[in-house]
Amino acid sequence: MNIIDSSCALCGSGVEDLNHLFSSCTTTTVVWNSINHLPNPSSFSNFEDWLVSIFQGGQSHTIEDNLLVCWQICKARNNVIFRCAQVTPPAIVHAAAATEISPPALLEIWRPLMDSPCS
């Protein structure tokens, strides 16, 4: 019988879900706190409210920057799980800052998530 570990791959505590991964994980909290010009998801009641707020804000650079950080958080999480990598908050921030992708391409990556939100 296989037992699935539901604890957060990045911090090792808490049940991993969208709210934990992007808002209350200690690793990602350090990431968000180190990027002063972006709204911090932990200041919202849940990840979905935060995501809606950045899209309603309408500033394309803010939308792009936030999605790049989220994407790098997801990549870091997957690298920990599937490649046994060790990641640090500065490495996630650096990867987001170094990523060059056009906003339309980035929005296409995230469109399926917006069309069918996770619970």
Helical proportion?
Answer: 55-70%
Main beta sheet, described?
A: none
Strand content: under 5%
The average pLDDT value, as a whole number, equals 83
Please write the string of helix (H) and strand (E) elements.
Answer: HHHHHH
Shape type: globular
- Distance between the first and last residues' Cα: 26 Å
Quaternary structure state of the chains depicted: single chain
From the helix content, strand content and strand pairing, which structural class follows? mainly alpha
| Overall strand count | 0
Question: Helical region count?
Answer: 6
Radius of gyration: 14 Å
Q: In terms of per-residue confidence, which ranges show pLDDT below 50 for 5 or more consecutive residues?
A: none
Describe this structure in words.
- This protein is mostly helical and 119 residues long.
- It has helices at residues 18-24, 26-33, 47-57, 60-83, 89-98, 103-115.
- The protein is globular, with a radius of gyration of 14 Å.
- The chain starts with 17 loop residues before the first helix and ends with a helix.
- The model has no long low-confidence stretch (mean pLDDT 83).
Short description:
This protein is mostly helical. It is built from 6 helices and no strands.
List the helices and strands and how they pair.
Blueprint (H helix, E strand, L loop, with lengths): L17 H7 L1 H8 L13 H11 L2 H24 L5 H10 L4 H13 L4
Helix pairs in contact: 2-5, 4-5, 4-6
